[in-house]
Amino acid sequence: MARKTPEQRLFVGNFPSGIVFADRSREKWGDYARCAMISFSDLKVTIEKDCPDALRPLIEEKSLAYQRMVGQQFPYSSTQTITMGYDLPDVRRQNTDPRSPEHWRAENELVRNNGYAFTDLEKWVNGLGDGRAAPHGDEGGTIMYDPTGQKPAYRRVSAVECIDAAISEGHFSRYPDYIQEALPTEALQPLDADLDEPELPEDDAPSP
User: Which portions of the chain have biased composition (kind: Acidic residues) (predicted)?
Assistant: First the structure.
């Protein structure tokens, strides 16, 4: 009997909480043996300890394709979609009203995750900026700075402009490292960017 290729063995199924990868050639508790799962909430991949080495490269390749869809709507069933990475701070801030408390919380979480904090120009001039390098930019009253002094500070009109300036200079990441590494180097794609989508998971999936 011919040995099955990794492509023939790997089963991909979708559930409300994420996408499951399973091995058609093995069974556990009456289902295909689960090998890994990528969570819709943060797009982290969890690989089972007994995942066969032969399937790992294919699972990692497919996971990268799903991670590149961060912020996009994904049809996990015939009638329902979900935002990929919906619990990541940048996705939350992009999908909430800028005037809402949730937007403010998401933005501040994103800033803290990058080791930055906000202050205003008055506090900066009146002591907070003493001994620190001058911020990049000379307009606006919003200052985003690194309390440790390891990264440059930014002065702009708004918090969003500070964040965008830090991103452009490579000192700020919109996403965790495992997603940054999945994205093409030229893209931190806007959330509505037209990306190549991986094939949709099959419907007859094993239990999560």
Answer: 193-208
Give the C-alpha separation, 119 to 148, whole Å.
14
Assessment of whether the complete model's pTM goes beyond 0.70: yes
Pairing of strands 117-120, 73-75: unpaired
Domain coordinates of the chain in residue numbers? 6-83, 89-180
Nearest partner of 153 among 174, 184, 180, 132, judged by Cα:
132
pLDDT digits (tens, 9 = 90+) for 85-134: 999 999 999 999 999 999 999 999 999 999 999 999 999 999 999 999 99
> Which of 90, 143, 148, 151 has its CA nearest to residue 118?
143
Q: Which residues contact 126 (CB under 8 A, 6 or more apart)?
A: none
